[in-house]
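Lecture notes, part 5. Sequence design as translation. It can be helpful to think of inverse folding as translation between two languages: the language of shapes and the language of residues. The source text, in structure tokens, appears below.
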């Protein structure tokens, strides 16, 4: 060994047997998960899955609900199915025309955008130029008067009388 690399050394991970047992154990786990899923699907079914749901007996229409849910309805025949396609659905040509109209509107909007290009570029430069031109307003004279008025009112004020 003496610090020299050893050639042709295989580990259990490199051998074919490790791949076989790994695949076999993965298969066992998948099988166990499938069985658990299949069995857990039937564990907690509500009692009304295969019969009508419970009805509040205090409801004024409780008897009507129970009678309607217990009554067996007639099953339709295959010849009674609605026509295909239903008459209230527009045909494919109408959808096609709508798509073509939408594409035409898109082309018109793109032409207008090319005719009137956007001019709101370099907004930061515009703002900087206008900030440089702007001058701060002088302080209002009202502020000085307000301070003098507040000082006079504080001097004139009397403390409240103590409560009994």
């Amino acid at each position: 060994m003496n610090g020299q690399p050893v050639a042709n050394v295989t580990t259990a991970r490199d051998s074919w047997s490790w791949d076989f047992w790994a695949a076999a154990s993965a298969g066992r786990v998948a099988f166990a998960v499938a069985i658990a899923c299949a069995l857990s699907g039937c564990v907690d079914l509500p009692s009304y899955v295969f019969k009508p749901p419970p009805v509040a007996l205090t409801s004024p229409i409780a008897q009507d609900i129970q009678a309607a849910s217990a009554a067996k309805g007639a099953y339709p025949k295959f010849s009674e199915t609605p026509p295909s396609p239903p008459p209230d659905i527009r045909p494919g040509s109408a959808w096609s025309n709508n798509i073509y109209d939408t594409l035409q509107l898109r082309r018109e909007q793109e032409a207008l955008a090319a005719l009137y290009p956007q001019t709101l570029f370099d907004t930061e430069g515009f703002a900087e130029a206008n900030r440089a031109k702007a001058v701060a307003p002088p302080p209002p004279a009202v502020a000085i008067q307000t301070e003098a008025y507040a000082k006079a009112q504080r001097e004139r004020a009397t403390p409240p009388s103590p409560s009994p």
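The translated text above is only one of many valid answers, since several sequences can fold into similar shapes. The longest helix spans residues 16-40.
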